[in-house]
Amino acid sequence: MRVEERPTYYLYKKGHSPDRVTLGHLVLGNYAMPTKSLHYSVPRMRRLIVISEEELESWAEISDVSGEYGRTDTTNYGIEVNAFGAGKFGVGFVTESGKAVVAQKGRLIELIQFFETKIMTDERAMEKLKTWLSVGRSKYILNKVGGLRKPEIWCLTGFYEFENAKSCVVSKKNPSVSVGIDSAAVAALCGAPVGCSVDVGTSSTITSVSEYPGKFIWAAQFQLITARYQRTKNGKCTTISPNEIKLYPDSTYSLGDVLGDEDEPNVAGLEMQTVSTSGPPQEDIDEAYWKAFEKAEERIMEDMEDT
């Protein structure tokens, strides 16, 4: 049995529709919840089905996959690929319990050249990034929740898409025994009816079987987008480089000028970090931060409407 590590992929508890989570999907905060955190997807990328295979292959690598996919620990970050050659997919191994997903068909799509050509050329995506970066650097945020952990910006650069999948929970019967998801477990899950409980030999039990007709994104790779803030000469943005965004003026703090206003950044240079340095999803951000974020965004947008 061939085993491969996919240490930068996150396995979801349930599949996500390709219409909502797809290549170039931007998330502010926790990408473990890609449709609940603040997010944006380039409309064209949500319609991959209408993009020609030739065009898609010009900026992404596409592979039909055959194997087993799953989480390596309780964080769900990092998956193991166990190739059985039977066109089925699921988890690599189980600690105490783990998620398994099996399907007859699937594919892996990973971006090659994308951020500069597909994201930074999309007007609405750039507007969303501009808003997130401007609000995150605002004086209101600094004064209200400056001591709280801030959300980071992530971009989806690869995914596993499974078709007509089944999912379940695989649990060990004996905590002292190491349990792998082998071909017997995959066969048991493929034949198991929805909602059933199935013993797999003497080592493990399959429960909570669910079916997902159609195509869904089950595992995804996100890369971190970092910003380098700066102030252009005399505070004027005449020309900026293609990987830079002009920030909104900070109009969030109504108590007069704050010391150092003349040095406030007005441009953010963006850089996508490598896969290996990006890491797992952030933990949930404190609710107080999001309330301040919403208020700061409201003030900035109102000021822009008045100008």
Helix proportion: 10-25%
Number of helices: 7
Low-confidence stretches: 83-94
Question: How much of the sequence is in beta strands?
Answer: 35-45%
The strand count comes to 14
- H/E topology pattern: EEEHEEEEEHHHEEHEEEEHH
Instruction: State the major sheet.
Output: 12 strands, antiparallel
What's the topology here?
Blueprint: E1 2-16, E2 26-28, E3 38-40, H1 53-59, E4 60-64, E5 77-83, E6 93-94, E7 97-102, E8 105-111, H2 115-119, H3 123-136, H4 139-145, E9 153-172, E10 179-180, H5 183-191, E11 198-200, E12 204-230, E13 244-246, E14 267-272, H6 275-278, H7 287-306
Helix pairs in contact: 3-7, 4-7
Short synopsis of the structure:
The chain has 307 residues and is an alpha+beta fold.
Walkthrough of the structure:
This protein is α+β, with helices and mostly antiparallel strands and 307 residues long. The chain folds into two domains: 2-113 and 157-221, no CATH class; 115-149 and 226-306, no CATH class. The protein has helices spanning 53-59, 115-119, 123-136, 139-145, 183-191, 275-278, 287-306; strands spanning 2-16, 26-28, 38-40, 60-64, 77-83, 93-94, 97-102, 105-111, 153-172, 179-180, 198-200, 204-230, 244-246, 267-272. Helix 3 (123-136) packs across helix 7 (287-306) and helix 4 packs antiparallel against helix 7 (287-306). The model is unreliable at 83-94 (pLDDT under 50).
